[in-house]
Known about the structure:
By secondary structure, the protein is of the alpha+beta class. The protein has helices at 21-34, 49-60, 68-71, 75-78, 80-83, 124-142, 158-164, 211-215, 233-239, 246-252, 261-264, 291-295, 299-305, 315-329, 336-341, 348-361, 364-377, 381-389; strands spanning 39-43, 89-96, 114-115, 147-150, 169-170, 176-177, 185-192, 255-257. Helix content is 40%, strand content 9%.
Amino acid sequence: MAGRRAGVAHLCGPRFLNSDPTELKTALAREARALGFDCIGITEPGTIESAGKHFLEFIATGGHGDMDWLASQPERRIDPRGLWADVRSVIMLGVNYGPDQDPLAILQQRTRAAISVYAQGEDYHDLIKKRLKALARWLVAAAPSEVKVFVDTAAVMEKPLAQAAHLGWQGKHTNLVSREFGSWLFLGAIYTTLELPRDSAEIDHCGSCQACLDICPTAAFPAPYRLDARRCISYLTIENKGPIPREFRKAIGNRIYGCDDCLAACPWNKFAQQGREAKLAARDELRAPPLLKLARLDDAAFRALFTKSPVKRIGRDRFLRNVLIAIGNSGDAKLAEEARRLLDDASPLVRGAAVWALGQLMPRNEFVRLRANAIASEHDESVRQEWQAAS
C-alpha cells in the first residue's frame, strides 16, 4: 500500500466519518464480497493468547522442523500488536478454493503426479493480496485510518485469528474448518487502526471425529490439534531442502507437491460449494501430469510450466527430487530409465533421489552391478550414502 511506511495506507474519505461503525462494517462486508471474498469477520488483536501459548510449545518441541522463520521473533506472531502496535481491529477474509473433483483419486494413478489442490492454479498469494489491497483502499477512503495487509507471508497467525473472527475453527488437523466451505479456505488479513464491531469466535465442531488424523500417511499428528511438521508430507516435499528421509519415502506415494489427505477427509467438506472461480481454477496440465513428462524438465522447462504457480518457488532440483520419489513408488519398471538418466544430473539432490528410485524399480542383480561402478565415480558423500543404503 502507498504511504509513509511500507504496507500502510493513509487515504482518507468522509463517507463514514461520523456514521455508525456498524454501517461501515456492513458496507465493508458488501465490498469484500464484490471483490471475490467468500467470508469476512472482525476480531480484536488480543484474542489469540491461548493459540500463542500452543505456538510457543510447538516451537519449543521442534515441531517446526527447519522452518526457522516460524521461530524468529515469536512475539510478533503470537499477538498482532507485536507486529504493529497501532492495530485496533483485525479483519479476516476467506476465499473458497474447494476442488471440483476428488483430490485423493489421483493417488491411485501411480504413474501420474499428485499436486496439492491449492497449487494447481495461479499462486494464491498474488491473487488474494491484490484483493486485500483493493479492499484496504476502499476502507481508508471510507474512513480515516491506517491499514496493513497480509496473506501468509508475514508473522501473522491467520488460523487462530480467523477462528476469533468467526470464519471457522482450527480442526484436529490444525487447519481451519468452515461450516460453509469445509477445509478449503485461503485466508488473508487486514490490520487497521479503526475500532470496528467484533464478531464472536467460532466454536469447535469436530466432535469425536478424527478422520483427518487417521488418514495421514506419515502419522504427522502426535495428538489431536498438534502437528509435527517434520513428518508432514507438505513439509517434506516443499519446505524440506535436503533428501526426503528414507522412513517417509514409501508413504509419500506419488505426492510430489504437498498433501491433501487430511483436508479431503474432513466430513464438513460435504457442505462446501465448489467455489474456484476462473483465476483460481486448476490448470488442466497440473491436475494429473505424467511422471515421465515431469522427470524430463530442465530448469527452463520447469520455470515455464510453473509460471505463476507456487510450485516454482521450490526450484527444479527439489521438484525433481519429489518426482523421483514418486517414480520409485510407481511400480512401473519402464520409468527406471528416467531415473537412470538422472544419475548424471548436476544436482546431488536429484542424483540421490534417482538412486533410491532405481533401487525400488530395477532387478536386484542389475542394481548391484550398477552400484559398483557408480560409487567409484560419485564424489558427493550424500549420494554415496544413498548407494550404500540401497545395498
